[in-house]
Amino acid sequence: MDGRAASQTITDKLPHLSRAGVEVVVLSGVSGEHDANVEHHQLWPMGPAGFRFELRHVLRRRWGNGLRYRLLMTLASIFLLPWMLLEKLLRPVESSWSWWLSAYLKGRALARQKPFDLIYSTGGAFAAHLAAYALKQATGAPWLAEVHDPLVVPGASPVSPQQKMQAEVERLICTHADIAIWFTEQAVASARQRHPQLAERGKMMVPGIDRPFEELPPYQPSQKFVIGHFGSLSPTRHLGPIVAALELLSDRRRDLVDATQLHVYGGPLDKVSSGLLDSSRVGHCMRYFGRIEADPQTGLSGREQILHRMRSVDVLLLLHGEDAICSEYIPSKLYEYLWMQRPILAIVHRNPQMASLIRGQGHWAVCWAEDGVGSAAVSRELAGALEQLFDRWQAGGLADNGQMSPLTTEAAVTQLLGWVNELPAKQGNPRSVEKSIV
Prior knowledge:
7-stranded parallel beta sheet
């Protein structure tokens, strides 16, 4: 799915796995594009809520939002409503939960034709990990689980059915997966603290991305000081800090505010950002471009267009968020930013690994205080960083740093295969993976 981080993380690995001699069979949902380079099975969820959710995306992609789409979705919703209400009563969790059964049945059928050397579950949706657990129990093949975002919120006890289900999936991973991967050091440490049986089977891997350009598009400064934010926004990851910083500068550095444009790309503005911008005296600085879709004229995907636009800004803004999960999460957008060689200004929420990674590459990381008090301090530090970057831009431009990112998908795949090839032979692993189901 173009531009979706969870899809990008696995799709970018496929060429490297293929070159390493791994035959990959992919089981996925139906919302994305069919991959013509690998054996790819797109499966519908078995539950009514999941079916309706996927149908909405499939029809919108094919027909748009016109009358035919609205009519068919209305009829489907009326037909599915009683079953959706029953499903919500019996299983009040995310609508994609039932996809695990579709994946399990398809995986079992494929495994009967030719056994697999490894089952590899990856993603944020827990249904993939449930399917992998069931396939491991049925086939005895080793299981590698790759958890993108932590399943349990740090410092919180699961209360809702969704939270309890995610906690149970984490327990299954920590107990039964032969290799369990998280994307930050703290996420592994927290999972191991909750489930000591994980022991050394828990691993940390930085997913990274490969070099997006053979040759970087030229950076051309414009008449404005352009700050670019790329990615989704939410009530816990909003534009509030940058708006507050610009407001602090509006009195003493009017030249900076008048010259600044904040370019925002991604999904719709969240309510917090919209409310702040509507009432702010620096709201005129913002330019909202929304989500960039594939361009049929140039043939460039949305992701490719976004990468070019990242090269055109003076400063890349990275918003981490403000909730507890940030301590165990690094936005995948950071790995794209690092390849752009443009200055990065990041607001980091209680994540020393992320701050160290950004500063280690010569960029700016403004960190929330560990004691929980810090929004005003963050705004002041952010304002100071903007002032320094603006003065450098005004004096002679913000040149590329010339650094190549060491955080690549190729390196992640090499690390992953190294762990797999160390699995004991008694678990049925032939010391090297030849056929893997993802």
